[in-house]
Specification:
mainly alpha; 6 helices; elongated; sodium:proton antiporter activity; membrane; transmembrane; Na+/H+ antiporter subunit G
Length: 133
């Protein structure tokens, strides 16, 4: 490879590492700061998966540039991660629904039409409040 190409590769690798770190950080913040289980599920299943994928992409580019061989281990890890993370998130959400885990409806954005269309009576409101954590 020509010598001018190495700084370009280093820039691409640095971009993927920084992007992966940012995505992983945002996913971790979502996991710690969101209110209920259903909202917390999006942090690790979406952004953290993308963050780890970016880091693995940087690793594949680096080892291809330094050794000249394609790294199958990183490719297999990436494929495994992108297949299992959404499946795991789906199974976790189905298990939460099966256990009748109540979502924190106080933090949801409900359109005004829905709020005025079905005003709950006092007994239903107290029953809903008693189920919330």
């Amino acid at each position: 490879m020509p010598t001018w190409f190495y700084p370009v590769l280093e820039g691409v690798i640095a971009f993927f590492l920084v992007a992966g770190g940012i995505f992983a950080f945002i996913g971790s913040l979502g996991l710690t700061h969101l209110k209920d289980f259903y909202m917390r599920l999006h942090g690790p299943s979406k952004t953290t998966t993308l963050g780890v994928g970016c880091v693995l992409m940087a690793s594949m580019i680096y080892f291809r540039a330094t050794t000249g061989h394609f790294s199958f281990q990183e490719m297999l890890i990436t494929i495994f991660l992108f297949i299992t993370a959404p499946a795991t998130a789906h199974l976790l959400s189905k298990a939460a629904l099966h256990q009748k885990l109540v979502a924190d409806i106080r933090t949801r954005n409900v359109p005004d039409q829905l709020e005025t269309a079905s005003e709950p009576d006092e007994a239903n409101a107290q029953q809903t409040e008693s189920r919330l954590p």
